[in-house]
Amino acid sequence: MTQAAPPPPGVPVAVAGVMLAVFLFAIDATIVSSAMPTMVSNLGDIELYSWVFSVYMLTSALATPIFGKLSDLYSRRVLILLAIGTFVAGSAACGAAQSMPQLIVFRAVQGVGGGAVYSLAFIIVGVVFPVEQRARMQGLISGVWGVASVLGPAGGGLIAEYWDWRWIFWINLPLGILAATLIVVGFHEERAASRRRSLDLGGATVLLGALMLLFYGLLVAANQLDLVTVESMVVVTGVVVLLTLFITIEGRARDPLLPMSLFHIPSYSRFTALSLLAAMGIFGIIGFLPLYVQGALGGSPALAGLTLLPLSVGWTAGSIAAGQTSTVWGYRNICITGMTLMVLGYVPLMFLKDAGGMTVMLLAVSCSGTGMGMVNVTALVAAQAAVPFRHLGVATSTVMLFRTIGGALILSIMGSLLLQRMNAAFTVIAADLKTSVPAPVLQKLLNPQNLLDPATRSLIPADLMPALTAALVNALWWAFLVGLAAAIAGLVLSCFLQGKRSA
User: Fold this and answer.
1) Residues in CB range of 333: below 8 A, 6 or more apart
2) What does 222-272 look like in DSSP terms, one character per residue?
3) What confidence tens digit (pLDDT) does each residue in 251-264 have?
4) Distance between CA 85 and CA 460 in Å, rounded?
5) Residue 254, number of CB atoms within 10 A of its CB
């Protein structure tokens, strides 16, 4: 397999620019959360609250495979500058938004640029560094994500409280320009002469349609009592039809968007599957542990955020550690260790009533985060090493897309299961409370997210709270069981991975 040449002297400057661009994308995924109450009070339309987050992640996921393929066809330098420009333009527009619908549209633009930046960052590292150095550099870039996830919520709250929430987005303008400048100065690629190729527009259109339908279905399912409904069946059927059509198109295309032959490479397909399972395991904790801290333990939003801090720190540490040791210790050993840590992190979540308090919980999430950091970097580097160099871009972006799908999938399944279990318990509880609790309050209690609202909690009779808390803990146990099953499946798969880097 043809390998990239050793990095030229200017590459450290370019890597600094790439890391800064990744930092901006990563921090914008979390910084908005703590500033949203202020933004909603200014713009209105609270019913559109969740779309500010969802549309950003959706469009970033949709951009991943497209820019991954484009990076194999055209100048990666031009593409990442275009991506940064799109992200900066979206950020400027978000800061100038005068309504919630405008903010959502501009967040979609920002997500396209950010998703492209994120995938191109790992692709560029794979291009300019040889295999034995990739893991270390990928680990450092993954560590940037961990740092951003720690600083994001705190930074958003401080800017909204002491400055102006619009600067959450406008701060990206000078930093984005700086990142682009560093890349222009430091990254000068030499592309080998080859026949002219074009983007598979038919395949791209069908794949985008399938992904949009899939993410829509997962978003809706996360807030439904029943996973099997007429709407969900229509969505599943549509996704299957579109994916079947996509595979057919790719099999006939002269230059396919996603060569199906990649999945015939055992190492690549297994590490890609592991990325999906690992994402399911970690996002099960990220998505629902704050609900346990606030809803069941009665903790504050600040405490819920603090609970995830060790996870972010562990993720960063695990990424850096894996990057330093993967070429010596081997891919399989690191992935087995990482998935074992993630499984161990779920153990206290299986004993929520007697978990040993917050100290044990913090140790558990730190353990899970460290495991994810190890698997996250190792699986990506191993997948890159398993494919021909000419497919490095699309192979990298596909692994990242599977991670995103894994996260969205587990949140959907766990969210629906949580509502089912809460509804079953609520039916029993509500039968004895119809005369003592107002109907509107009873209806609010059906959704466990409302237990996070101080105004709603204040309306709950004191003698009812223990029953609701117990119901929530039971529902969360079943939800976390699904996340644990995904982590165990990832651990089993890790045992069948290739031990050393690909030849």
Assistant:
1) 499
2) TT-S-S--HHHHHHHHHHHHHHHHHHHHHHH-SS-SS-GGGGGSHHHHHHH
3) 888 888 888 889 99
4) 50
5) 7
State the average pLDDT for the chain: 81
First to last CA, the chain: 8
d(CA 362, CA 305): 11
pTM listed for this prediction: 0.81
* DSSP designation for 379: H
Domain with 446, as residue range(s), is 263-503
Within this chain, do residues 308 and 207 fall inside the same structural domain, yes or no?
Answer: no
The one-letter amino acid at 113: G
Please report, as a single letter, which amino acid is at residue 298.
Answer: G
Residue closest to 416 by CA, chosen among 213, 231, 207, 210: 231
CB count within 10 Å of CB 223 equals 13
CATH of the domain at 160: 1.20.1250.20
Residue 194 inside a domain? The answer is no
Is 501 in contact with 384 (CB distance < 8 Å)?
no
In what helix (H) or strand (E) does residue 283 lie, and over which residues does it extend?
Answer: helix 266-291
| Residue 481 belongs to some domain of the structure | yes
Cβ-count burial 173-201 (b if 16+ within 10 Å, e if not)? eebbeebbebbeebbeeeeeeeeeeeebe
Same domain, 269 and 248: no
Whether residue 435 is found in the same domain as residue 405? yes
DSSP 433: T
CA-to-CA distance for 297 and 474, rounded, in angstroms?
13
**Among 339, 26, 19, which residue's Cα sits nearest to residue 153?**
26
Task: Identify the helix (H) or strand (E) that includes residue 325.
Answer: helix 301-329
**Under 8 Å CB-to-CB from 145, ≥6 apart: which residues?**
22, 26, 315, 316, 319
360's tokens: 């044990």
C-alpha to C-alpha distance for 87 and 99, rounded to whole angstroms: 20
- The number of folded domains in the chain is 3
pLDDT in tens, 323-344: 888 778 889 999 999 999 999 9
Chain-centre distance for alpha carbon 399: 12
> Greatest CA separation found in the chain?
79
